[in-house]
Design a protein that fits this description.
The chain is an alpha+beta fold. Helices cover 34% and strands 28% of the residues. Strand 3 and strand 4 form a beta hairpin. The longest helix has 14 residues. The structure holds FE2/S2 (inorganic) cluster (FES).
C-alpha cells in the first residue's frame, strides 16, 4: 500500500503563525494513531490560502485555520476522519 501525503504549508505566512510548533504536534499525533504506514507528513510551499491560518492539504482536501493551540482538535475532527 502506498502512503498518501499529508502536506503542511511551510510558506512565510504559515511560518509566522507557528508552523514549527504545529509540526512536532502532528508528528506525535501520527504516532499516537499509528498512521506511520498510511500517511507521509511533508512540508509544502505556500498553498495559496494564506489568510486562513495555517493550512494543510490531504488529497484534494484543504484544512485551514490551524494553529499550535487547535492542531490536535483539528486533526481529530477534520483530518483523521478523511484518512
Ligand atoms: S503561506 Fe501557507 S498558505 Fe500561504
Amino acid at each position: 500500500m502506498s502512503k498518501e501525503n499529508l502536506f503542511l504549508c511551510m510558506g512565510s505566512a504559515c511560518h509566522q503563525l507557528g508552523v514549527y510548533e504545529v509540526l512536532p504536534k502532528l508528528q506525535a499525533l501520527i504516532g499516537e494513531y499509528n498512521l506511520q504506514d498510511k500517511i507521509e507528513l511533508k512540508g509544502s510551499f505556500c498553498l495559496e490560502t494564506c489568510s486562513y491560518g495555517i493550512v494543510m492539504k490531504y488529497k484534494d482536501l484543504r484544512f485551514i485555520n490551524i494553529s499550535p493551540q487547535n492542531v490536535e482538535d483539528k486533526f481529530l475532527q477534520e483530518i483523521l476522519p478523511n484518512i
